[in-house]
Amino acid sequence: MKADYSTAHKHCRNQGGYLAFFLDQKEFDDYKLNNNQEYIGYWSCDHPNFMTADGNEAEFTNWGWGEPNNDNGNEVCISLLPNGKMSSVPCDREYEFSCRLPQLCLSQDNCEEYFCRYGNICYHNDDVSTSEKPKCPTSYSGQNCECGPIFVPQTDEFGKFIEADYATANKICRRQGGFLAFLLNQKEHDDYTSSVWFPKSDTSDAFAYGTEYLGYHSCGLPTFYTDDGNEATWINEIWAQGEPNNRDGIEYCVAMTYWKEFNDYYCDKSLPFACRFSKNCQ
Ligand SMILES: [Ca+2]
Ligand SMILES: [Ca+2]
Questions:
Q1: How far apart are CA 253 and CA 212, in angstroms?
Q2: pLDDT tens-digit readout, 118-127
Q3: How far away, in angstroms, is 237 Cα from ligand 1 center?
Q4: Exposed, middle or buried, 112 (CB in 10 Å: 0-12/13-18/19+)?
Q5: CA gap 173, 31 in Å, rounded
Q6: How far is residue 109's CA from residue 128's CA, in Å, rounded to a whole number?
Q7: Which ligand is located closest to the Cα atom of residue 210?
Q8: How far, in Å, is the centroid of ligand 2 from the Cα of 254?
């Protein structure tokens, strides 16, 4: 099957997995190369840095000579060639692809050589037909997924809000086991806006449209994704009037407005942010 990147990504997400990506050399060596050029699960909001399709910083890459070259400035995706080399490519071409699918695990022991992560799931790159979707939405826990996320504004040791660009903010949350705060519904939005508050002294237009970063990115693709790699759907209920307008063609990230609505926004500003964590419901 051939598809553009967005379609391929969605196909894998519908099975509870991601387009194939590789955490290390071992995973890459285990991967069965295709006879044709294929999409793999990486994209870039800020060349030459790439992230994996689940929103983590890409730590393993195997670039071909001269890559990633970002030809024509729109090579946001990565393809894998039959010789095992990676090259940056546009996302609207049609290539073959494989999914990285989950198997349920209780601990790292159940995963053998693979990784147990995100809600007790082993990830590997085989074509497993017995895959199961994670039981609860991201950051939800409890017997009946009744325990929702908490949102924690990030401060330094003096209690001052940390301000960072999108990629750095994303990384800071990931390193603590959370996500840059994204909101899945009106209730989460209410919880977020009542528990997270970034006081403002400047309400000028330029400022009011970017009060804090939220955990969404498009990287130039036609839809926005939450930072756990799912297509963002509720986001369409909360855009500020006239947004998303993709100003200058590079508003690949999302910020909150002063009026608590969403605005697609530049990724390289310095803004405060909150992280989304699972609650401990023991
Ligand atoms: Ca290229
Ligand atoms: Ca905008």
A1: 11
A2: 444 455 444 3
A3: 36
A4: exposed
A5: 29
A6: 19
A7: 2
A8: 8
Return the minimum-mean-pLDDT range out of 9-18, 29-38, 50-59, 117-126.
117-126
Let me know if the fold of 2-124 is the same as that of 149-278: yes
- Taking the centre of ligand 1 as the mean of its atom positions, its distance from the CA of residue 125, in whole angstroms, is 24
In angstroms, rounded to a whole number, what is the distance separating the alpha carbons of residues 216 and 239? Answer: 13
Counting residues of the chain whose pLDDT is more than 70, the rounded percentage is: 85
Domain spans, the chain? 2-124, 149-278
Segment 174-209, tens digit of pLDDT: 888 899 999 999 999 999 999 998 877 666 666 788
What CA–CA distance (Å, rounded) separates 48 from 243?
27
pLDDT at 217 over 60: yes
232 CB-side CA count, 13 A: 26
CATH class in words for 149-278: alpha beta
The CA 67 to ligand 1 mean position distance, Å, reads 6
Dihedral sign of CA atoms 156, 162, 164, 169 in order:
positive
Q: Which CATH superfamily is domain 2-124 in?
A: Mannose-Binding Protein A, subunit A (3.10.100.10)
d(CA 278, CA 151): 9
Of all residues in the chain, what percent carry a pLDDT higher than 90?
A: 49
Q: Provide the token pair at 27.
A: 């995973």
For residue 143, the CA-to-ligand 1 centroid distance in Å is 46
